[in-house]
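Deliverable D5.2: sample structural annotation.
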Amino acid sequence: MQPYTAPTLSPSKALRIAALATVAVGVAAPLLRRRVKIPKAVVLASAWSAPVALCVAAPRSPKRDIAVSILQMWAYFATYEMPADDPDELERRAFVDYPVKVDRLLGLGELPGVRFQRALADPGHIRPPEKLLVWAHWVWFLVPHATVAYVFLRRREQFPRAAAMIYGTFDLGLIGYWLVPTAPPWYAAQKGRLGGDVARTNLELRRMMVDYGEQFWRGRWPTLYDGLAGNPLAAMPSLHFATSVMSAHVLSDVGRAEGTIGWVYAGTLGFALVYLGEHYVIDLLAGLALVEGLRTAAPRLAPLAEGFSRLVQGLEHRAQGA
């Protein structure tokens, strides 16, 4: 009788299994971190490793490109929400006053948001133009990803750069949220930190999105708001505006009509964010600086990105037995 010999895994199969396990852990860790009390560093390392691991585990295909984009945003959401795990600590760390002072300078003595609402709003009512602005804010949750999907379908050769630029904007904005947690105007208004603007004009800065959300969504609004709020003290830079501007740049590379739509939306959203009390002008300017800085630095970063890509491709080839 021949002695039993345990089956052995080939190096390529072992590498694929390890990569798939990394993907699974990266998906599960953010879901389980509070229940199991997983250290933040472990969660971050796991979540951000998952998109890379999938590139090793599966050969390049349209489905893999989509899955990698989803995993990247999964890591972003986990990182974005994490500072809000301890609301009291986040409030202690949050910066409330500096954007008020800067925006008062930019507004020539008065906050632009307060100035806009005093001139255009009807206290106690949400008019159709304001409802349109609220919807411009709500649809933002789809716009950057719809832009990436559009490029994927219409200009496949531009997809890698488009996805890298838009999702890179998301990722770099997280640095500000962690290092300089900054309160938005509506929060400062709730805490009575807008100072002379409110006292002088006898106007309370309204958060119109909430007013209209309660009116439009009714009983579903608390669930929707809680599900999307994530981190309420993450205003600097404005990634709403930054990713919309980057999307406009990306769409401009596709075609003139697409670019026009992108820029009209970015401009509308920028005004909406200030008028609705969601962001300061300085938040938008910081988001714009982030976008233009990334676009300027992209050619210089390209060799580093290409080197990393070759490393991942080498692991992919080994995992696929090529």
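Annotation notes: The mean pLDDT is 90. The radius of gyration is 23 Å.
The annotation will be released with the project's public dataset once the embargo ends.
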